[in-house]
Amino acid sequence: MDIHSEKILILDFGSQYTQLIARRLRELGVYCEIHPCTVPAAQIRAFAPRGVVLSGGPASVLAAGSPRADRAVFELGVPVLGICYGLQLLAHELGGKVHPADHREFGPAFIDVKQGSPLFQGLPPRLDVWMSHGDRVEALPAGFEPIASTGSSPFAAVEDRARRFYGVQFHPEVVHTPQGKDLLRNFAYRVCGCSGTWSMRAYAEVAVEQIRAQVKDGHAICALSGGVDSAVAALLVHRAIGDRLRCIFVDNGVLRANERQQVEEVFGRMFHLPLVTVDARARFLGQLAGVTDPEQKRKIIGREFIGVFEEEVERLAQHGERAAFLVQGTLYPDVIESVSFKGPSATIKSHHNVGGLPEKMKLALVEPLRELFKDEVRRLGLELGLPKESVQRQPFPGPGLAIRVLGEVTEARLELVRRADVIVQEEIRAAGLYEKLWQAFAVLLPVRSVGVMGDERTYESTCAIRAIESTDGMTGDWARLPYELLARLSSRIINEVRGINRVVYDISSKPPATIEWE
Ligand SMILES: Nc1ncnc2c1ncn2[C@@H]1O[C@H](COP(=O)(O)OP(=O)(O)OP(=O)(O)O)[C@@H](O)[C@H]1O
Ligand SMILES: O=c1[nH]c(=O)c2[nH+]cn([C@@H]3O[C@H](COP(=O)(O)O)[C@@H](O)[C@H]3O)c2[nH]1
Ligand SMILES: NC(=O)CC[C@H](N)C(=O)O
Ligand SMILES: [Mg+2]
């Protein structure tokens, strides 16, 4: 079965919404990939798309050096949909005219649709849309006709039906264009001839076959954290190669309450995954002793993880098991971030990175989730029988509580944040908010303050609560938790966790703050 026979190529010109185009198409059961607009023609041909989408972008096609796609896209004989900058590029490249508009359009607008185009089939004659542009198309290339207009622009949507080229000035991929998904469905199904064969079930089958073909012999190791990504990757690989998989869970001493027991329970006893827990608490805490700098903490943890995995590979070798493969839960956003059209970005914090592992240990990578977004991984997890609690688990960073204990990481301070975190988890769940929030957790600050409890003076630690709404962790807003919930959190933590006498709520969004405090 080739679930990749219906593929759409998205060329990225730097729009903030490019990923949304991919999500919408995938929701429609159409496999697609985002590539930088600079991708060479040979690669485009090899990808063999059923259609191409040109994304929006911040540049103006009128500016010298603004991004272009290889002209081969227009010669593939497949449909093209230009969105915003993509439309302007179509017009500019094929002989039309683009100019800065007198009236820039930002925000909601409506378009009047000329009936008859496959792009608008089944849609009403007037549509609410979302605009965000300063340039506009003033003259169409030969062969093109307008198919929708706004009060201020006659070319809100255009087509060259013979060549199957389409362009829209608005953004069908954003939720503020309520029927945008129908338009994208029309493009994918009616214009490109896709039928929506991409599903998580089909994906799982194909992935399992591919893993079998890749891991023909030898063992594969997988660092299993109990998080969604590594769990789903491990389950897929286990399906493919059974007990040639060795999962390694590291108890690094900075886990949350009961985390080790839960992971062993779910993956060992429930899924019969061959799981080894390495008790490395002393090793990690020993190395972290006295360290307060966040980057240094992260680097130590990354290094110790690698050390533990190396020792495990060595131990397997002594038992005659040659580990030749490393399973990683790399997701599609991780992949696109490294190939994006946009330039390299500054290092904000070093995410503990198991990525340092393979080269050093000469293991081939098995990354069965490389094509998926987080919500797709969650659906795949359900498909593979992972319990709902595991699938909906909020992300938990590899460096664990070490980066949620600001200042020195000691057993005593870890215990404070652990106990506060249990209360946060309980109350957030009880309020029915766990799945709505990207993350909610407690942070122990290196600050003591004066309080009065039972007529006694206290001078104890401060705990901050972080609750964040986000779709991908890249940006986020602090959650407007109900006051009653905040009150309960504060009173429970202060009453139940001896050593904390003050609770504060973090009201910073990302950016400019980050989600974790270190
Ligand atoms: N305690 C641990 N033991 C073994 N491997 C770990 C541990 N913590 C993290 N890892 C490895 O680091 C990788 C990255 O961690 P990350 O938190 O990004 O992913 P995850 O834990 O699988 O999913 P989630 O993002 O939902 O927490 C994990 O996929 C896992 O391979
Ligand atoms: O596996 C991980 N290793 C790390 O080193 C790491 N640091 C942050 N995070 C998680 O990533 C998301 C974004 O976090 P920040 O806004 O703090 O950068 C949030 O979801 C964080 O919990 C990590 N995950
Ligand atoms: N959102 C976009 O693609 C904008 C395209 C172009 N930069 C303009 O302002 O018109
Ligand atoms: Mg994790």
Short recap of the structure:
The active site is at residues 84, 171, 173. The protein has 3 domains: 7-191, Class I glutamine amidotransferase (GATase) domain (Rossmann fold, 3-Layer(aba) Sandwich); 200-391, HUPs (Rossmann fold); 410-505, GMP Synthetase, Chain A, domain 3 (2-Layer Sandwich), CATH 3.30.300. Helices cover 33% and strands 24% of the residues.
Element layout with pairings:
Blueprint: E1 7-12, H1 18-27, E2 31-36, H2 41-47, E3 51-54, E4 80-83, H3 85-93, E5 97-113, E6 126-139, E7 145-149, E8 157-160, E9 165-168, H4 180-191, H5 200-214, E10 219-223, H6 228-241, E11 245-251, H7 259-270, E12 275-279, H8 281-288, H9 294-318, E13 323-327, H10 332-339, H11 357-361, E14 364-366, H12 374-383, H13 388-391, H14 411-430, E15 439-453, E16 456-469, E17 477-478, H15 483-496, E18 500-505
Parallel strand pairs: 1-2, 1-3, 3-4, 4-9, 10-11, 10-13, 11-12, 13-14, 16-18
Antiparallel strand pairs: 5-6, 5-7, 7-8, 8-9, 15-16, 16-17
Helix pairs in contact: 5-6, 5-12, 6-12, 8-9, 14-15
InterPro entries: Class_I_gatase-like, GATASE, GMP_synth_C, GMP_synth_GATase, GMP_synthase, GMPS_ATP_PPase_dom, Rossmann-like_a/b/a_fold
Keywords: ATP-binding, Glutamine amidotransferase, GMP biosynthesis, Ligase, Nucleotide-binding, Purine biosynthesis
Domain GMPS ATP-PPase: 198-393
Pick out its properties:
GMP Synthetase, Chain A, domain 3; binds adenosine-5'-triphosphate; 518 residues; 33% helix; binds xanthosine-5'-monophosphate; binds glutamine; Rossmann fold; 9-stranded mixed beta sheet; 3 domains; single chain; alpha/beta; 24% strand; binds magnesium ion
